[in-house]
Design a protein that fits this description.
This protein is of the alpha/beta class and 329 residues long. It contains eleven helices and 15 strands. It has a domain at 2-179 and 219-245 and 283-303: Rossmann fold, CATH 3.40.50.720.
């Protein structure tokens, strides 16, 4: 198949691109390189069935040109990360809403199958253990920047649903819950690489709030095969599908695990959300997905435990530290 991957140089996009190339497909990647990294694509950058275009999903003409002739479109490009959303709310909203509209319009026009990456943050403060795809959303005030990302992604989902219903677009939405692994960057707020980097360099690990809030982390290599299966599934068309792990860990426990696994002398410090994010922040206490539907549609199973995820991030961060030292940065 000929595939277009938006956000191809990003964390998940680069792993997906590698998987597609290894499987024999042709891939065109689109990335504005705002958070993506060229080195993420080192394994495929010279491959004859891969090409990378530097550009924005806000460029409707470019998106349309790249979509023409594509069989599958994987829309992963987005403004992501708590720090990015905090610092650039307007740009984030435009990217996440208008960019998705451009991609959905192009996929519809050219009759391509479309997979759109959404987020478990859709559910907001709903603390039900085992959130199903039809669970109610419990979202705070739209004037709190904490919900900017979730609201934009909800609009994306509604846009895609409209294209499915009115235009017959063959599209599936995936709601990702805390995907983690090598190539993820802690600079934008992702907690595991942020903790690991600080532990490896002997700096304190900062836990926001009490640390009692829990998360469920899923290895990126468990997620990627499900993305490829779902984009092909007629049964998945028009659906939103959760992808994640149900293994809960508190952020305080996670910090202790990272320190132990890195044999670090780092301390753990606590900071209030107000100090970091200002008055616009609220936190989700316990987002736990039910991924039964993903198992039925794509054989999805989160098999890799948290310790393996952390170890893969440790190896990746050591490599980055060594590379930075070698070039003197």
């Amino acid at each position: 198949m000929r595939c277009l991957v938006t956000g191809a140089a990003g964390f998940i996009g680069s792993h997906l691109t590698e998987n597609l190339i290894v499987s024999g497909h042709e891939v065109i990647g689109l990335d504005d390189m705002s958070t993506g990294r060229q080195e993420n694509l080192a394994a495929v950058s010279e491959h004859p069935r891969f090409g990378l275009v530097q550009g924005s999903i806000l460029d409707a003409t470019l998106v349309d040109e790249l979509t023409a002739g594509s069989d599958w479109v994987f829309h992963l490009a987005a403004a992501v990360g708590a720090f990015v959303i905090r610092d650039r709310p307007l740009a984030s909203l435009r990217t996440n809403i208008h960019g998705t509209e451009n991609v959905a319009e192009a996929a519809s026009r050219h009759d391509a199958r479309l997979l759109v990456a959404s987020t478990g943050e859709i559910y907001g403060k709903n603390a039900t253990v085992g959130l199903r795809e039809d669970a109610d959303r419990v979202i705070g005030s739209p004037l709190r920047s904490r919900w900017t990302y979730a609201e934009a992604k909800a609009t994306d989902e509604s846009l895609v649903d409209g294209y499915v219903r009115e235009r017959g677009l063959r599209a599936v939405i995936v709601r990702l819950f805390n995907t983690a692994g090598p190539r993820q960057n802690g600079r934008y707020g992702m907690v595991i690489p942020r903790f690991v980097r600080r532990a490896l360099t002997g700096r304190p690990l900062t836990v926001f709030g009490t640390g009692d809030q829990t998360r469920c982390f899923c290895h990126v290599l468990d997620v990627i095969p499900a993305l490829v299966r779902l984009v092909q599934s007629d049964q998945a068309t028009g659906l939103a599908v959760n992808l994640g792990s149900s293994q809960q860990v508190s952020i305080a426990q996670l910090a202790r695990m990272v320190i132990a696994m890195t044999s670090s002398s780092s301390a753990i410090e606590h900071s209030s959300y107000l100090d970091v994010y200002g008055s616009g922040d609220e936190d989700m206490q316990r987002p736990v997905p039910d991924c039964t539907l993903a198992g039925q549609l794509a054989g999805f199973d989160a098999t890799r435990p948290l310790a393996e995820i952390i170890q893969s991030v440790i190896a990746d961060q050591w490599s980055r530290i060594a590379t930075a030292a070698a070039i003197g940065t």
